[in-house]
Amino acid sequence: MYYNFNEMLNAIRTKTDKKIVAVAAAHDHEVLECATAARKEQIADFILIGNTEKIKEILISLEEDPDTWTMIEETDDAKAALKAVELASEKKADALMKGLLHTSLFLRALFHKEYGLVPPKALVSQVTVAEYTTQHRLVLLTDCAVNVTPNYAEKVQILNNAVSLAHRLGMDCPKVACITPVEVINEKMPETIDAAMLSKANERGQIKGCLVDGPLALDNALCAEAAKAKSIQSPVAGYADILLMPNLCTGNAMDKSLRYFAELKTGSAVIGANVPIIMTSRSDSAQNKLHAIALSVL
Amino acid sequence: MYYNFNEMLNAIRTKTDKKIVAVAAAHDHEVLECATAARKEQIADFILIGNTEKIKEILISLEEDPDTWTMIEETDDAKAALKAVELASEKKADALMKGLLHTSLFLRALFHKEYGLVPPKALVSQVTVAEYTTQHRLVLLTDCAVNVTPNYAEKVQILNNAVSLAHRLGMDCPKVACITPVEVINEKMPETIDAAMLSKANERGQIKGCLVDGPLALDNALCAEAAKAKSIQSPVAGYADILLMPNLCTGNAMDKSLRYFAELKTGSAVIGANVPIIMTSRSDSAQNKLHAIALSVL
After folding, report:
1. Which of A138, A283, A288 best tests the B interface by mutation, with the highest count of B CBs <10 A?
2. How far is CA A154 from the centre of its chain?
3. Using CB atoms within 10 A as the burial measure, which of A30, B90, B109, B114 is most buried?
4. What is the pTM for the complete model shown?
């Protein structure tokens, strides 16, 4: 089990078969800076798809030898995205990374039926992994970026996606807290109803590989004393590994609060498709982008 | 202007007329511990309403002389709450504090028409004040605890309540960011529509005493560089004093994230009635409870 990002990065470094990340529209300084760092850290190898002339220029500015990089010329963004997806579907790439192109173009290629990267019943969701330094462990938050107002069935898939990532991080039976503003059932707060359903579905074996409890407020989920003060009896309360957010609004604010208020190290992954997807934000730090690549090749 | 809680506490200490806090159902160890600390710190004086026998016992256990405290015997919780409200309506108390009784009983007394503490068109809302240590200043979050899914008109009132508190904290023209997951208008995210309305209403002079902008994601609101990366031109972006939350779910998670992930010093106030109200949570630290009392007597 990995307790922080350094342990995870070290584990990836020691693997002999480096994973390959296909970057769609790679002709961007920030994207290449990130790829360069990941390659130097021995986290992944890359196939750079896009305007190869520009890519070479940027690589030289980063003091990299362009001849040591694999490139594919494709100046049309939509086609560059499709090329990346094609490489993944042919198993020539292990992960996809969004470069300098519109998210919609990137996602359209990802969902292109011909390549079958997203099976019909699959749901793609986002997970933020954070180093919860005070407790010396990693904690997962989902979904902070993709699904706006997931219904119950979608929450089950979001939860399952996060659990699969938690397993990769070495958490055998992750504890999942369904986050709500209160720890009691309140029929005026639909998220408390979903939380009860998810919790019971887990108890009945409909959701496996984890331990789910909710509704739980954030304090009860993270702090055993806070849970005790509210007389909550739960193996999850105080020790949650996965925080299932009730909606994107809450997840997004939480994710950003971890970075801007708590200044925790984070990384994010977009999962649920047949390959992991790397979609970092311009405002992410270089280190957090590296963590995102590491999570995707895990 | 106060840049941290210590400055605020010092300013209150130097005032010669101590404010009086009426505590409903004061017979509780944690509540009296908090009152004792506030009195020692010269933040406020108290009228303790409740089971006076128990109150005396607890005070003695806290090494306090019960004879130095003002008490009113009332063992019925509902009546104790009404007594506190009565004292406030008669200007014999400057703030109300919830002790060991159900929130619903406490609020019922507060909204009791006879005492008129909450004018018919007023809206009671909650504000969390946090020491944003990295930027050496205070930041306000609202509403994290009272209004579940405020509509536009209610958001205007929540905003105005927070602005009045910001003025008390010495912020002449606080910058208000309407927090959403994205910084663009997205008709599928109703909070971005409310944010645009609030922003324009401020521009047209319908909301005064502050500078409002939104939709803004949390990173854009707090970090000038993140705002620049998204090409956002706004005097609020990067420097928000007040974070207007789109709903309770988001506000509550954010509030708790400040305490449990970021470990910031916080304090909360319930405002909008004719007197400030102190409703702390059992899981709050003693220091944060002291801040709550200080904010209410400000």
Report:
1. A283
2. 16
3. B109
4. 0.88
